[in-house]
Design a protein that fits this description.
By secondary structure, the chain is an alpha/beta fold. Helix content is about 30%, strand content about 15%.
Length: about 325
Amino acid sequence: MMKIVVLDGCAANPGDLSWSRLEELGEVKVYDLTKPEELEQRAADADIVLTNKVIIGRKELALMPRLRYIGVLATGYNVVDVEAAHERGVTVTYVPAYSTEGVAQMVFAHLLTVTNRIEHYTDLNRKGRWSESPCFCYWDTPLTELDGKCFGIVGLGNIGMRVAQIALAFRMKVQALTSKKAEALPEGVRKVGLDELLATSDVLSLHCPLTDTTRHFINVGTLSKMKPTAILINTGRGPLINDQAVADALAAGRLAAFCADVLSEEPPRSDNPLLRQPNAYITPHIAWATKEARSRLLEVAIGNVRAFLEDKPQNTV
């Protein structure tokens, strides 16, 4: 019987979902979290390993001589040294596109937080502000309509394309920096160059992969080309932005707001400069974590294992 070890299952399934379909495929041991020094003890005799954030590099692979398969419980698979795995004959799979709807929804949850400040007013009302108002209403923040504003997108993959559709539904003008040809873009989405994107976007949302080219894509130089009234959103990868540069731009009023579900280091250090900025709105990497998305994640991940065992591997890297 195959020995299957889930190294860090608590994020995908903190207890509200079931591993039962995986248990049909072998002897399963699920760990909430695994520290690097615990890997050998837990997975030395594993045939199949599932990981989310536990790194499996060349050194770690050497600790698991029986390993035949690594299933990444995510779309990004940078936690695995794929080249080293292939050298060992180990199959690596990932889970594509499971969180598209949740991440796109989070983009607009963040954007509407800035433009409408629902949480701010709810909090003030709990403290009696409306009850004490001499007028039938009050507001102490700018309130902004999205209609007609320019929404810029970096990267038009599954999530970027879904974000574009939602922005169009808000009747925003959508433009994108993308490798896709202009004629291949949906109606209402305009292809632009980097300088035009930066200079004209009222909202700029990042959805490109993290590569050597895109690391710190948002930096002092690119920020200097953006509108000081712009809202920057990052639900892609934390290192797409330079934390200090964005914090400095916010503090100096050269950027209106920064919204993020990801940071360059997770969990962030307590002295991360973005955490101190009042116009930085940060959620703890939860856009992917709707129950619906996590259900899809487990369904596909377990399906990947089943397909591998049937000698029909799918979603391979």
